[in-house]
Amino acid sequence: MRFKQPCFRVFLLLVAIGSATDSRAADFNDVVRPLLEQRCTKCHGGGKKVEGEVNFKQIVTAGQFLKGPELINRMIDALDANDMPPEGEPELDEKTRARLVASLRTLLRKATAGKTVKRNQIRRLNRFQYNNVVKDLFQLKLDVFKLSEKLMTRDDSYLHPESGKMPDKVNVASLSLNPKPGLSKVKAFPKDLRASHGFDNQANQLTLSPLLLDAFLRLSISIVNSPEFNGQNVGIWNDFFKEPAAGADRRAEVRRRLEPFMKIAFRGSVVSETIDRYTAYTIAKMEKGLSFTDSMKKVASAVLSSPLFLYRSSAAAGMQAQLELASNLSFYLWASCPDAELLDLAERGELAKPDVLNKTIERMFADPKIERFLDTFPSQWMQLENVMAATPDPEKNRFFSLDKKNPAGLQMVLEPLLLFDAVFIEDRPIIELISPQFSYRSDLLTAWYTTDLKPPSMDEARIVEENRGRVEKIKALETSINTARKELGDLDKAMVDPIGRGVVKIDLSPGQAKWEADQAKTVAETVTLSPWHRIGPFFGEASRDAAHAKAFLDPKKIDLHAKHGDLKWQEAKNYVDGKLHYFKIDLNCATYLYRTLRADAARQIDVLLGTDDGFKLWLNGALVYEINAKRSLAPDMERVRLNLAKGENKLLLKVVNGTSRYGFYFKVPPRPGGLPQQVAAALRADADSRTPQQKDALAGHYLSIASELTQVRQKLAANKVALSNTLKQLEVDLKNAPRPQDLAAHKEAAQRKFDEEMRNKLHSRTFQRVPASDPRFGGVITNAAMLTMTSGPKRTHPIARGAWLIEVIFNDPPAPPPNDVPPLNEDAGDKNLTIREKFAVHRKNPTCAGCHSKLDPLGFALENYDITGRWRDKYENGLDVDASGKLLRKYEFDGIVRFKESLTKEKHRFARAFTAHMLRFALARELIAADSIALDEIVAKTEKENFKLKSIVREVILSKEFIGLQN
């Protein structure tokens, strides 16, 4: 409920003037009422339209005034925030303002005295609480389902160190976009609705529709039936689900196990009748043939489906009130059910005793489950879940989503959460959340805040000079390689003919004449082989064996001109001795090969054969060797000795195939001193009748073997080896030599390298504690997470940032804009104007000016930060950023540094706002005017400890609003 600011502020000024008398009624009747009628009722009760839904004309007596504690509370807030008097009106001096606020607070106490705070209605467990209760109840090692609401996962256990000091280096990650899986095949219920501020534990939001009730029933069954719900993952398996020893009284055993289990699940002692009913249900399942373990699973899911498990409700008094306190404590600090110790203290009526309660709070602070408080309150207080939906324009900040599965927001959100962890663990004053002495940053965030996110700048002159050197080196290597290759060619020629290439001068005639005479006898023993002829393949047989046995040709009558059906003999000059020769794939067939061997005298020779598959070999029509086998072709598979007659000898080879491809191999091992056929033929001719070609053949052959040239050739060979090695190294050097790059390519390479470095940074899980050397950054106000989530895709939103500050830091959320005010189109208008200049036009509307006078200074104080929280001095249009303003109408600032300094001077105001958020979270309901008194008391007590975080949490618990929840 709002009312027009100017008239209301005049009213407050007049109230201050009339506050001198001690009598509240007299003040109202003699001073306040006449001034209301004279100055305020024109807008608030005197005309046809009542501004702000407040009619001061109806407030006639002090009693009527005291009936509106909410209005009194709003008056106090407006005065305390310096919203009144409005701009343009004379300011109240601080003494008058302080006296007026104190008087109104006294009236507020009187207005709320004796009134019972509305009890929390019944409410169910939210998703996070449900997960934790089930985990604690069964001592589960896994979450029940994925928890995207958990924004930080801690790899290190640092929440309860004995030193009370946060480590300088921690490993954390945000898995919110890809949460760890829970139990498989579990049917989780949807995420809970959030209250207007962002807390998900508010009672008025945690209702239970029929559809949601059905979801809870299906969920309870799916949990105990999950494949991972077993002895490895369930800590109470042996004590609760395991089959008892043979001969045990099953009914007694079931009841014994159910009693402590149900006490934790239902958060208090359970009457015998209820335990008996659940026991009977379990025994009935066993009697129907279900195993003990499966029957206990059935009863466990029944417990999880009970309203006593799903719901929390208020208690009247006595032990039930103590049990409610135990639940309130555990759900506040642990987001789960009370443990056995809490329940025991409650049942004994000890828990609410101040000394016991204080010791309990310290125990709960030190318990690892305190992580759940740190998983909920800070992220919801700062509304950090919104950063997961941020989508900055990639053209303006491409690195935010360089890795779409790991956007920068996942690291940004960790910085303020780690700061909150540190302030809690080290029990620091909460003002350090705004102006800390340190921050926790990853490599990514360090680069984000301190660099321009660009590759190192290029030295173009250096690159040009470097390219020139690279070109020269490549050219020199290419010249050296060409020279080496030419020299190798010359060496090859010199190796062939050292005399002709001028390497040495030697007359080889005497040596050649002697060699020719010595070779006469050897030549007489030479065997000459003709080229191969081939015919085939021959088909028509059903198997390899049949093809091997059948004579497709008469080996004694070989006629190379005869035809055999459609087949005829063909010369096969490509069949070279000593190599493997394959035929095409044919099945169950045979191919014949024929050649002649001419011997100058009768003699024996060995031949080496190989075939795929078997073969037969005839010499001069007589079978001399055969193999019938399935095998693969290889060299030198058989050695066969042939007895050659003087003159021409006929050799016939039959190669047989079964399946796949087939072929043959044939080789005559060289005899010592063997000569090429052309040389041997020349030696057989008489020396006087040799042709020029024969003479050249003899001279060329002797040149290649002349012993007179052995030393020369050895030296040339050594030179060739050395030069070949040099050439290989030159070629390697050329291949590895850096190539010249133009500037564009160089920039692209540098950018690719930088992108890869940034991509690696996006995956970092290590955060380092660093001193707050630059006051522009750090704290919950000036971190990239908050600044990104309060920006649009293309530009900053000062109003969104101002609204975040006024709601989160000052706990004074603005009212929605009136329906008759058109929304501000910040993208419209002259592009040469700054955002501030565009807003100046909007603020001329009197209806808008009231809220904007509060929001604009806050939002524009952050204008030096772009859409992802990086510093800027100018807008894209080149205009300077103006981040000056006035905080609370009393602190001038010229930028964010002085703005934060001003905030720290208002630590009492921040402490009260922060405590209000904490109290709302603890009570799980929206605060009312009566809670303002409790806030003042908590703030007064914690001010003595400089508003340390744990002291605020502790005093919230010790407040009558918290302890009195059950009263």
Give your account of this protein's structure:
This protein is of the alpha+beta class. Among the domains are: 5-112, no CATH class; 119-146 and 181-314, no CATH class; 386-442 and 769-905, no CATH class; 527-670, Sandwich (Jelly Rolls). It is 46% helix and 11% strand. Strands 6, 7, 10, 12, 14, 15 and 17 form a seven-stranded antiparallel beta sheet that branches. The longest helix is centred in the middle third of the chain and has 37 residues, at 460-496. The two termini are 30 Å apart. Residues 1-23 have low confidence and may be disordered.
Properties at a glance:
967 residues, 7-stranded antiparallel β-sheet, 21 strands, disordered N terminus, alpha+beta, 46% helix
